[in-house]
Amino acid sequence: MxxxxxxxxxxxxxxQRGTLNLLTPDVVLxxxxxxxxxxxxxxxxxxxxxTSSPAPTTVPHLRGRPLPQHFMSVDGGxxxxxxxxxxxxxxVADDALIVTCHGTTTHMDALxxxxxxxxLYNGHPxxxxxxxxxxxxxxEQVGGxxxxxxxxxVPRHLGLDHLLAGxxxxxxxxxxxxxxxxxDVAVIRTGWPLVWQxxxxxxxxxxxxxxxxxxxxxxxxxxxxxxxxxxxxxxxxPRGLADEDLADDLHLILLHRHGxxxxxxxWLEELGAEARAEFVFVAAPLRIEGGTGxxxxxxxxx
Amino acid sequence: MxxxxxxxxxxxxxxQRGTLNLLTPDVVLxxxxxxxxxxxxxxxxxxxxxTSSPAPTTVPHLRGRPLPQHFMSVDGGxxxxxxxxxxxxxxVADDALIVTCHGTTTHMDALxxxxxxxxLYNGHPxxxxxxxxxxxxxxEQVGGxxxxxxxxxVPRHLGLDHLLAGxxxxxxxxxxxxxxxxxDVAVIRTGWPLVWQxxxxxxxxxxxxxxxxxxxxxxxxxxxxxxxxxxxxxxxxPRGLADEDLADDLHLILLHRHGxxxxxxxWLEELGAEARAEFVFVAAPLRIEGGTGxxxxxxxxx
Amino acid sequence: MxxxxxxxxxxxxxxQRGTLNLLTPDVVLxxxxxxxxxxxxxxxxxxxxxTSSPAPTTVPHLRGRPLPQHFMSVDGGxxxxxxxxxxxxxxVADDALIVTCHGTTTHMDALxxxxxxxxLYNGHPxxxxxxxxxxxxxxEQVGGxxxxxxxxxVPRHLGLDHLLAGxxxxxxxxxxxxxxxxxDVAVIRTGWPLVWQxxxxxxxxxxxxxxxxxxxxxxxxxxxxxxxxxxxxxxxxPRGLADEDLADDLHLILLHRHGxxxxxxxWLEELGAEARAEFVFVAAPLRIEGGTGxxxxxxxxx
Amino acid sequence: MxxxxxxxxxxxxxxQRGTLNLLTPDVVLxxxxxxxxxxxxxxxxxxxxxTSSPAPTTVPHLRGRPLPQHFMSVDGGxxxxxxxxxxxxxxVADDALIVTCHGTTTHMDALxxxxxxxxLYNGHPxxxxxxxxxxxxxxEQVGGxxxxxxxxxVPRHLGLDHLLAGxxxxxxxxxxxxxxxxxDVAVIRTGWPLVWQxxxxxxxxxxxxxxxxxxxxxxxxxxxxxxxxxxxxxxxxPRGLADEDLADDLHLILLHRHGxxxxxxxWLEELGAEARAEFVFVAAPLRIEGGTGxxxxxxxxx
Lengths: 302, 302, 302, 302
Description:
homotetramer; alpha/beta; Glucose Oxidase, domain 1; 2 domains; 9-stranded mixed sheet; two-stranded antiparallel ribbon; globular; hydrolase (chains A, B, C, D); KFase/CYL (chains A, B, C, D); EC 3.5.-.- (chains A, B, C, D); Cyclase family protein (chains A, B, C, D)
């Protein structure tokens, strides 16, 4: 018998993978050596279906996006109502999830998520991003991220609870906080998710984010991933849109021109409270073939 | 302003979390110290929607389960057909995923996934597992797993490509290969996914898996997770069912009685080829509130 | 060869079908004789997916309900981007719909949709309504409705564009307009969908609807269906809820106690403009086994 | 207050609506006059979700297509398990449906479903069929069909239970049975769904269907709809494909060149047993904006 292995465990061709190429084994080992206490924090917000709860409020999300839906195809209620157990007495709960990750969950963007003109990152043809998935630069190319996480807690640096909606973080401010090494994951805290707890309307009134200069500064330092607790890395105006021109758009600077993957909608409050500047950052998107992104649960190992 | 933080970064109450309680900071630090080369392998099979590809064959799965569906709500084809870019010229691809993880993808089971009688693991009432999710023992309680992975490559140990469908791995065989420490992730290779490449019909003709004794042996060694490349940890008969009685059912032994989380449908061929007995195992399920499981991309850091 | 026919074309057992039993062949023939001009009007609002359009506004719906999602699994954009045609040159577009009909689309309620206590309509056990569908009183029992439609255009009768949010239509008002015969479909126009065009917020500020007395009056006249252009047949308070007590709840009066099927969220503006008091009403819900309702496109044949 | 009505009750521009233009008020009135007994038959197969039933067999469908999924977001089991009723004691069941209609349910094809070259029916640009729906020739253009149904019960005419998989119905055979008038719905019975009850494998081994000549003959007689109990109007080869060349493809002849809407996967056994050559045919697809088709429950009024 001769197997032609699928090699599903190997990551894809390098030229589709952007600055994740920076995640060499040396970078990985170096990152792991940074663990101090062994405490593990989740940086993800919950995925709470529109149908999974009768509660009137829900998780921070961009207005108008299709919210996650979570269904049980069999559950304990069915047995309470008299459903027969399986086989000798086994009871099972099974579910299904419908998720559009961008704007609704903690997620990672694939390199095929945004572009301008006819080419994706690294010249891949945008015409390969079709209804049955992207055969170039899909999220399945990422594999996993294991790297040093570097926390830029901007509001703490400024003595604020959270940044204001109109604030665009300048490169100088990042520079005051820390200097990334190649392969680092830059974790940017704006504190904006705290606003949701006061008022969804205020959360939707705009969002603070990186300035174009800050994006260029991070790319110049060869970070592998930029990971933020806001919804779009850059800021949003009151209509919920990025309004930089094409040269200054944060997605185009990072994702499109430099192949830097983006993580958005993180929950960073516990990590911020720990005030740990460096930690091990691990994230592994679902291997969705041709996906434009994936919901994820990033971990910080302190 | 007084925040009442959501504490979404903290893991849930201990008594819902089973042997993951074994994942103390010491276990985490000890696991990280086991990394040697820094190579990172994905242990996940791809998620390939029934609608994401015109190909006649697809990814190993249990017959009759609802397969993942992956849709693009906007893609490069739309721009090729004349869709207007966003704003100053930004183009975007966006997608949605429908997934029932059990039996169709590499996934982790929540403690609410299986039980007998009226109680889940640790006496939680099964009646709390309802249509809007499980308010006890849901997958969101897991947070993340960072632990030493211990590979039990059973077919390699026996000089086989893969185990046969009717084989139930005895405890003695595991014992010959390695002895887990508390908190370890026991990674069991059966090689069964290789059979899919020969024939889906053969893949569905039954599956090899752990014997009840092997399950008890692993639980007695306080492993935190049992992770397998077959579909159900235990074996399956030709009708695709586990046929142990209640005392010997692998899900009941591990998940229900000992709170050991299960990972199923791994892709272990590259890891097996590396022949590394120990490595760092990292997995973080999606934070689906009340979920019975989550698709995951586990990583092995060598 | 002996067939055991599925009899999918036959309607289910009578006792699950409520007052649709009133739709005897005589009622059907009598209804058809009422057609005058042969003009056919659709009484349905469009199903416009959250993802099917970039437009900022959408179709009237109850706030917080999961909106329909519509995806193309292959479309003309893919061919514009270079996808190969099928076979000798055939091109195909294919799609998928995710729909939760109650509160989001023009739909019919099944008899299993609402109840109080432990019994559905006609004493069927509510415990038979489970995660895998209702084995009693599901929407597949309806088959089809062909009956005389009787328009109660209440705002026109009162000289208004639409009723006000707090108005509950008294039985006397219906009585002034028309008197139903057994089997008739009572079509109640409130005009409330017009409010959506002014302001979704106003649409959500409450809704006019039938009073309990009006519900009892319709049931006493043996109508087969009550069909309305509001969202819940009865009125809604500013929090979007029906607030009658159990004795007076419109769903309980009509659906639960009398087995009268309900159609909600109709679009009646063209029918209203025609000012035809009687017409042929035809509606056929999808044959969803165990469904709590179905999106429909009711037709009025004038 | 000035309303700009949505006119959702009006059908779309004529040139998108194909031969449904034949459904003039005279045709409708003439059809209604054909009712004799007032008996109403459903011509739909049930929609039975992959997850709605534990049963091993299901409803006839094309192999490999994504099957319907039906979920309850709240049900009687939840109340049995202790869920609190709504308000004063109201209990509610609510559900969601995921459906890809082509190949899985009784459905109607939109004119945008198939084409060759760059143009849809009547010269509409195929590039307007995009990920967010078809802005030309979508299923919402149909409105409703009320017409004379003309049954071509081919196996009965030949003294067979059902046609054989390789049989392509010649025009002459249709001609022997009946001659359509403009606007008629030609209902073609092959009996093939009966084969499903013997064996899904046999159902998938090919399908009988119309010959190209028969398609041309029907188009020449100005039928408004061709409605069949097979899956593709034309026949299918053992690989489940239509294998006529472009000139003879049934979808291209009827849908693309003549704008004749197609209904597929009907259940005609009860109608066939009634042996009624003529009846009133009514069908109203869901008003899915830009949809490529819709699941439907067609009615035959005898």
